[in-house]
Each structure stands twice: as C-alpha cells, then as structure tokens.
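User: Batch of two.

Assistant: Item 1 of 2:
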Amino acid sequence: MRTLWTQHLPGPVVGLSLAEHKGVVDVVLGAESGDLEISFDLSGNPADQARQGADSDSGPDTGDGHLSLTVDGSHVCTLVGGTVWQRLRLDSDITAMTAMTAMTAMTAKRDRTLVFLGTVAGILYAMTPLITPARAAALLRDEALLPTSGDPADRAARAAKLYEQAGSPTFAVFRLRHLAASGEVDAVDTDRLIAAIARKAAHVVCADPALAFEVGGAFARVGAYEEAVAAYQIAASSERHRTAALHAVGDCFSVLDIPVAAVASYRAAAASGPNDETRNDLYHLARRLEERGQSTEAVTQYEKLLPWGAGYRDVWARHGILRSTEPILAASSSASSSSSDPVPPDLVSVVRQLDGVGLLPTAKRTIDDYDATFYERFENPAVSDSVKKRLEMINLFGVVDPARIQTSLDVGSGTLRYPQVLARYGVRSYGIDLRDAWIRDNADAECKGRFAVADGTALPFRDRSFDLITCMMGTVNHLSAAQRRRFFAESLRTLRPDGRLVLSAWDPRCDFQSLLSFYSPEESDELRRHLSRPEELAAEITAAGFAGFTVTPFFAFPDWQVLSCDQPAEGAAALAVLAELDQLRIQRTPGLAGQMFLLSARRDSAPDSAKLGEAPLPTGAGSGRRARP
C-alpha cells in the first residue's frame, strides 16, 4: 500500500462512508464526538480547488475480484487471488475501512483502488495498493498458463520467476507455499526457491513477522539453520507467532549442537505467554470448572491467566470471588458460554479410573523407573514429557475399553510401559522391540517373560492372537513407508476380528514440536523430514484392510501451560484439568493439530477360529531371545 495522505482527527474512527464525483471525495467519518464530513481530492487539495479539475466518475473494479483487502488488527493486507501481496502495519488497530475505484487525472490510470482507513489513534489514511486490479488479474491469468505436466521442479521455478517479476517477494513466498500445499509443485523445490527469494529480499522479510515465520520454516527444511534462526527471531516479534517461532529457534539450535542457546529459546517460548485464543480457552475452562464446583482447579486456571491478561473479561473479579470463598452463582455472568460450547469427551472419568489403579502418580515404581533413568541423558523438559505420556495414556483409554481386551501387544515397547499398564487391568499383555537393553533392570520377571526381541514388520505370533495392538510414542515415525506397509499387514494378520490397532505419532502440522528435542539433533532432523500427516497414515492403514479409523490429536497447548504448574504429573486433579483443556482447544478449533495424534483402526469382523485364551508367543520366544516368525 502507498499512503496518499493522512488526516489527524480528535478521536478514534468508528465508521467510514464515501462518495466521489468529479475528482472530489466526500468522506463521512463516524467518530466518538459525532459524524464528520471532509472533502478532499485524491492528492489532498481543498475541495474548492479540486472541483476545478477534470470530470471523472467512479466505476467498477476491473480486476473481477482478483484484488481484495483485509484488515487484521493494526495491519492492512492486499490480497491477490487470496494470497497476501503486501502486509502493512499502521499506527494502531484499524477500526474502519472502505474502498472505491478511482479514475482521475491524479492517478493517470483508470484502474486504481483508493482505500480509506481509520484507526483507534484517530488517524484517517488515504492509500492505494501497489498493484492494480488489472495487473492482479493478468498475473493470475499468467499463472494459469504455467505447464501442469512435466517436471515439477521446472513448474516451481517458472512460478517463482513469474511471482518475482510481479514485484512482491511476500506474494512469491506465500503463493509458492500455496502451490506446494495443493500438490501442484514439489515441497522440497519450493523450500529452496523460497530461501533464494528471501535472501534477495531480506529487507521485506525483516518488516513482516508472518513472512519471516514462513521463510524460517523454509530455511530450516533446506538445512540453513543459522538463517532460519534469524528469520524465526524476527517472527517472534509478533504475538501471534512468538511461541511457535521461539520453539523453532530452539529446534534449530539443537540441530546446530548449541544446547545452551536451545534451552534458553525453549524457556523463552515457555515464558512468552498465551495469545488471544489461548486466553479465551483458559477463561472458558476456568468457568467450566467453576460451574462444576471445582473451585480450587478454577482458581488455578484464573491464576495462569492473570499474568498475561488481568484485564481479560471479568477474570480478576471471578478470581477474587473464588479466593474469598463466596458462593458462586453460575448464571450470574453473561460472559459464560459453557451452555453453547461443545462438551469435550469425558476424559476426567478416564483420569480418575487410571488414578484408581495407581497409574498416574510419578512414584518410584517399576513402571516409571525407565523414565527416571533413560531421560537423564536428554535435555528435554521433564515435566512436559511426563504430561505428554500421560495424555497419550488417557486418550488411549478414551478409545479402548480394557475390560473388553484379553490379550494385547505393544510394538516398539522398549520400556514395557503399556504391557505393564494393561496388566493392571488383567490383560495378558506382550511387548516386542529390536533390543532388550532398556528393560533388563526396569521390568519385573513376569513382564520380562512376555517380551520378545522381534521386528514389527515380521511379528513372531500366530494369526488372530490379539484383541489390541499398540505402537506408541511416535515409534511409527521411525518406519519407512515400506516398513509401515509390512507392519500394518502383520497387525491385521495377528489381530482378531474386531481387534483394534492404535498408534500415536508426531503431527507435522503442529507449529511447536519442542518435545522432539529429547532426540539427538540428527534424530530430530530426520524425524521432521519424514513425519506423516494423520490423513496419510489413515490412508495407508485403510489400504492395508483396516476400517473405522479415528484420529485424536493431543497436547495441543503450548508448553508454558505445563511448565506453569509445579508438578502437573504428580496429581490426578491437575492432569484432568490439562486433559480437559486439551480437548476444549481441539473442540473449539476444528482441525487444530497437537504435538501428537492417536490413530485407532479396527479389523473387520470375520469368523475366528483362534482360541481366545491361547498364548500367542511361539515356542522359544521370551525375554532377551530373538523370536522366529
């Protein structure tokens, strides 16, 4: 956008309307002091001189809708074909906008959009986009003429050249990303092209945090981690991108083997606080707890919100009421929206059930010894990792009823965590892994007898041996596509009719995957390059013969909400609140990605000749010995 002129007003602008005739624009402004009418020509001359100019009239937008404008807080965005062409920040939040097509002598063109914007600070802007509707339409026509067949890399390069020639690096970056997301060009080629564009237009990247965030991702994916850090740190100046950008900075420092900087970045991300969406989630969760009579838990959520939004709605007053132990009248505030909010699944009862059989506290028991020793060599947030594991367990029991399971297998068990967990419910539970070093000192004799050193792509078990097969903690992310196909085929073979396969995986759509930091930099980088989206894994599982799959995202909130607790894994009540917050965020934001997701699929019913009580392990399979198929 190019500013033609500005006008300072006595108060915030609350509305705009305009009309143009013979080169004179009459602007009617809604202000706190009442409506004002101001007349200008397009260059800011007084109206009496302007009316001596050439005859002119307003006309339709010749761009046929290809050029549009949006307002986002204090930013005004020019869009071409729905993609950002330019994002410009004004002095304060924009409260009013209107536009018209100007055809006057001043512009020397009969195709120029004139935009008026009013702000909270009381400034009226007259602006014009840097691209005309006709140019926007021509650019999109040229784009449509790009070859749709042949080498995808050539198509990506041609598109990049076209966009760069148009004169907007911002549009070039976001439009290339749009083409990659739609599958029209290769994502790897796109990242290389975006990195090249960003290097030539560093001044534009520095001025736009949203663009810098996209560029940072491209730099990281092509291995230019130092440049990615610089871009992400620019993006961190925006509240919207701050937490995700700082997490990404930490990931880059981890890959560069600079652990002190990585830890500092993760801590900065944790301390960056919530955005508006998260504040809203915290508030409604606190109200929900309050209305259920869970005053202590509600106070905790209000106190998490106070450092970042003490003036948010009536949070201060409600916190004061609860702290003073006065009666809570749920219907007394019209701000509550719990009656219209979607009700999350009843994960609270799952937490209570798990706590009832002693599975949640972090006491020194066999089931947790592995966590206490194995993770000592990693510099990951111990509290966050503990919460992630328990959220996974809660969501597993949200889709699986242990009372209906007689036998289970955990693939890639390592810790024997889930075989031990399911054994608490009377399930005959087995585990396999490629090695047994991790369980020698951390599992009791009974569980060791149900462990086999084996490969998930060639399961050493009889057909139809299990009611449940699990593959948790992102184990499936370590498998190639060919290995996954064999694993899914083996799972289908060894499951009984109506048996269920459940796996958890890292979600590449999530902006903050800080928990991957407990892998080595090489492992983390390799994982990020090969993570599968939920729909991709679901398609592979369906192709293998499974049906009725469900996808459940979890850990959808930033780490700071975990780290703000003292020890959230120590108490069932705190964990229940985090589980409910997780579900509330996911319910309120369709398509929201968590750091991980749970995918559950069922084997179709068929006549089953296997005996339910038959031990599935073949002769010779046991602790520490390699089982033969």
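Item 2 of 2:
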Amino acid sequence: MTSFSFHAQVAAEAIEKVGRLFNASIDDILNELLQNARRAGAAKVLIDQIDDPRFGPAIRIADDGAGLDDPRSLFSLGRSEWSKALSLSEDAAGMGFFSLANRGAMIIAGQKGTGQTWAIAATPDAFHGKEPVTVDAGPDGHQGLTVIFPEKKGEHFASAVRRAACFFPVPVVFNGEEMPFNDFLESADHIEEWRGIRIGVFGRDVSRYHDDNANFHGVTLKIPLPELQQSWHRSYFVRIDVVDCAHLKLVLPARKDVVRDAMYVALLEEITRLFFRMIAASGAHSLRFKDYQLGRTLGIDLKEAAPLLRPFSPSCADTDRSVVLAPASVEKDAIVFEGEGPLEDQTFARAIARLDSAPALFDPHRAFAGYAWYDALRCIQIRSYRMEIDGATEENQPFDLFGANARPDRLEVVLDVSRAEKTEWVLETDLIVQGVDHGSLDEAEILVTKQSAITPSHLTTFLVDALYSPTDDSEAGSYDEQEQWFSDEAEDLSIALLETAHAADLNAIVRVVERELVWRVPREDAILIRIEHRKISVEGLSPSVGASPAPRPAT
C-alpha cells in the first residue's frame, strides 16, 4: 500500500447541521452576541424589544464596537475576524454567531475604517447554506454592529438579559434602563490572581452546590473546582473570574464546560495550595489527617490539627432527638468512647453517670486518626454485659439476649480500654437494654436490677431515646402519632416491669380517660363510668352537658 498524507477539513455537509450546535435558547444567543460586542471593543451595548416589519416582535442588540471588515466572516463556520492575539486570549472559535441559525437575523454593520455600512439579511436556510445571505448598502452613519432577530413567544427575555448582563464587564442598557453589574467574586474572603484568573476564596455558604462558580467575561457556568472541609473551623470553596483565558479553555461550541487539560489540572492544584496557605496563616485548624498530609506534601508548613473533639453525648434512635455538643479542648487524660449505636450509647451513658467523678469523655472523630495527639488518647468500647441473678453470673456480647426470667441482682458493663496499662474497665449499672438498634420493644430485653431506683417515667424516656425510630411509611401515622404510640407502649412495659401488670393496666385506662374524656366533663361535676360485660354506663353527668343545644333565635 502506498503511503500518503492529507489535511483535516470540515465537510460541506456540516454547514447544514449548524442549527444543532446550539439549542437556540435566548441565553445562548445573548451570551454569544455580547461576547462578540466586547471583543469588538464596544463601550456600551443597547438591547431593545421592538416590532420589526419582517419578524414582528423582535430583539435588537446594538453595540458601538469596531464593526466588520467582511460580512462573510460572520457566516464562515470556524473563522473569525479577530486578531491572532485576541483569538488566543479569548479562545474565539468563529462559531458563536451560529446560535442564531434556527431563527435568522437582520444585521446592520459598519465597515471598519470607513463610513460605509452593510445591511445583511440571513434566513435560517441561509445560515444552513441552503440559500444565499444577501448584503446591501446600509444606512449612513451607522457604527458598530446591530443584530435584529425574532423573539419567541413565551420567552422570558427580560430575566435573560439581567442574567447575561449580571457579570458582563461592558455596560448593558435594556429598554432604556442600565442593567446592574456585579463583581463575580463579591464577598470573597480572599482574592488572588494567577495566570490571568482571579481566584476568590469563600468561607461561607453562597449556595455553592447550585450556583455557577466560573465566570468567563460574563458567561458563567459550574465546573468541578476543589473545596476544603474542616471539622470545626471555616471550610473553603472558590469561584474563579477569568480575566485572560489564553490557557483555560471551554468546550466548544456551547461553552458549557471546561476542557480538562494540563492548565485545568494546574488550576486545581493552585487552588488547593491557596487553601492550605490560608489555613497555615490562620493558625489553628481541624483538617482531616489526609488533607493535612496533602498540604505538607505540597510544601505548606502546617501544624497538627487543634486538639478539639465533641464531648460524648449518647446518640438517640431518632436522630432528631440527639444532642450535638460544641467541640471542646482535649487533655491527655481524656477518653474516647466508641459506641455501636443508640442502645450501647444510652446504656453506657447511664452507667458512667453513676460514677462520683466521671472522666472527660469525647466522641470519636476518625478523620483525625494519624495525628499524634489523637492516636495517644485512650479509647473504650463495650466488650460485654454481665448479669448476676441469685448468685449465678452470665456474660454476653452486647447484642446477645440473656433471656432473664427475673430482675437481676447485679448488672455490669465490661469495657475494653486501648492504649492504657489497664485494658479492662468494669462499670456497675442498674439498667441494660439489649436488642437490635432501631428495633421494636418486642425485640428488646430490658434488664433492671432489683435495687434500682429508676422510675417508670425515667425508664420510659430511656426506652424512647434508645429505641424509638420513626418511619416515613404513609400508613404508619404522623411523627407525633408514632412517637405517642411508642411512648405509650414503653410506659406500659416500664410500669409492668417496675411495679405490676395490674398497675400498668390501670395506668393505661387512666391515660385514655385523661386524653379523651376529662375535657368533656365540667370541673364542678363528678361522674362514674361503669364497664360491665363490655357495656358502658355513665352516672353523674349533668343533663345540660349532654343535652342538645337550644335552637338559635332567628335574626
């Protein structure tokens, strides 16, 4: 086979498909025409809604820029009149004007360096190469470029203009009113310029998960940019404002994403370095250990994270009931408790509260593993529970039920202690609840020592905290209903366990009467409700209470 070479080219048929390069939205059209005006050196852009004899309701965009050398440049896909320097700096691709391909347009353009003008008419078929673009002499004295195109019914044009002008660096006047301009990096905590890009660092939420974070001369988009989270201190994210995009380029033709090239990678690294430089300058931090290592790898002199942890607070099965405490300083003798869920947390919390002097306890924060101060802390976990009944002792894993048939004489929580001379710690307690986290009361085993002074009310609260977890099943009732049902069941179990089943039945009856009946009886009345053979009778209720209301007089 003979070797040969050739040059890449654009097929003639491609011009027929230019209408698919853009979605013809008003946002795309405005952005492209405004960018063309800015590149042409315009000092102002006028946008008006008009009635046009050819299009009817139409949009007119006029700038006072340099005009054109040759009308053909507007309709030559991939070719433009921009200088080589500007084309490199702006990444101008000669495609933007084709955002009008599905609408058609009338253009009045001043000829560069002369007093002559052109009137250019282009139908949608002309944009697609199916018929010629017509060029005639334009009105005398016209400067810059004016583009008129049809407005689509239902288009929210005013809001589109405000969006397009918001960060556009050239004044835009719409229907006689100058549009507000904003600095894309307004309210940034810190701004640095790097290779023609302004990088703004923000330390608070500016809806960063929804808003655009990159501005290319008024064209904004959301691109993947680094952010740096801290556990207790300020977290950072960025926005970038491109002043000179000679190196950072957008994906053509729609310019909705950034090209993931070496420049983009370098930008991400520079942003990351900037984060760490700011953190190093601020003093104390609470970076994850792996982020701390990354910062040092990048050459930033970082100290270890400040020794701060959240004090231990037992979790609840219903997370909305859990209390999250503010971070506090951690001393060398502090202890980290690693529970396995709300049942263990609540059981341990009750046991530790019985001590005359409890140690400083903190929740674990595994993101800090690796820091010397964190790795040196003693850590405790529940190994097992011990139960003694009538002199017989039994020890089980936390999730294994004892199956006790009586209240125990003694209960103990056995803890494993790491990084300490004494590796076992035994806490005596009066209450242990075993079972499945977020399970039902029927699945739980409730152990209360014979000597315990816990009240049914306190036991009920414990069971709700340790086990109640609402469901979002539409047939399960509202949150309040579910909580009430669970609390009632827990109250019945508590009274039956600590007192008698008979007392639990009486309490349940009183509870129903208090909720459903008492409010119907006047304070001065006394009634007797008798239930006999499943039949109910009521004595003592005043006739006026149960009587039908007297008819209201006619008015």
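The two ends are 110 Å apart (CA to CA).
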